[in-house]
């Protein structure tokens, strides 16, 4: 499947301008997924190239690259019909409880090749699979913790910048909770688990959630003290 969206070629100075503008805009309004996405694309070329090479070395990663699955309603809608103990059903509950739709992600626009554009799209679209697997909320602390895991997995500069931006918005109690409790866990969890970009998640939807967590070395988020 071809990645949807029109690629926009940028010169180096244009990439820098988009990156700076997106960073400032995302800091002012963290809900702007389009700005966060643009920041990731314009600062993450080297990281996405590294992820692409890892996927090419992995049998399951190569299958993802070959078939190019998309996390859109037409392809993952069957998750809502799976038994409640399965990974797919847990994902459907996560999405449904928040009124999220798989199709809500903004398109990738600033990657130089179709292959890199797909890797960036895949990284963006599996975000909610990772929320489900690690049992993380979508509040500011949960999103910041997941960004730590994403950084450990992909080394995207945007992830680190998002953590910094998120912690700036914490109150004192949230900041203490994050750095004493969630940050150490996320750093370990992101390092100990398998290469999460090399998993064809959709083919594991019908497996037991706890089984796939064990298989992939997932350490679920601890309960807040």
Automatic annotation (TrEMBL):
Pathway: Cofactor biosynthesis; ubiquinone biosynthesis. One of its GO terms (cellular component) is extrinsic component of mitochondrial inner membrane. Belongs to the COQ4 family. This is Ubiquinone biosynthesis protein COQ4 homolog, mitochondrial. Zn(2+) binds at residues 127-128, 131, 143. It comes from Linum trigynum. Keywords: Lyase, Membrane, Metal-binding, Mitochondrion, Mitochondrion inner membrane, Ubiquinone biosynthesis, Zinc. It comes from the Eukaryota. Component of a multi-subunit COQ enzyme complex. The keyword Nucleus does not apply.
